Amino acid sequence: MNNDEEFRSEMAPPGEGQAEVFERPDYAAQLSHILRDQSLTRSEKKSLLADYHANDLADVLQELTPEERRRLYALLDQDSVSEIFSYLEDSSEYLKELGVEAAADVLENMDADDAA
Q1: pTM, full prediction
Q2: Per-residue DSSP letters for 96-107?
Q3: What stretch of H or E contains 23?
């Protein structure tokens, strides 16, 4: 087999006429587990949460319970919470969960377009 044939065989899709399907991870279940797992230290939870993109966290906020969201907010720094909120269409429901001072701080850290 020459180099060109080898390359084509490596790049061939799995199975004939069959496209590979990628499933999106169940971030809500993963986050719920991290937030509820009492065997993990606060530091370990923060480290695990650092692996998630703010947009992924924003996508699953509605799937978390209010208590899980409060735990999440408590583990993240203000900039991270602001970034998560910047991905939300309507952050008002979630801002109420933060309390007045924390919500004001989050809004202050958000870009003007995102905070509106």
Answers
A1: 0.70
A2: HTT-HHHHHHHH
A3: none
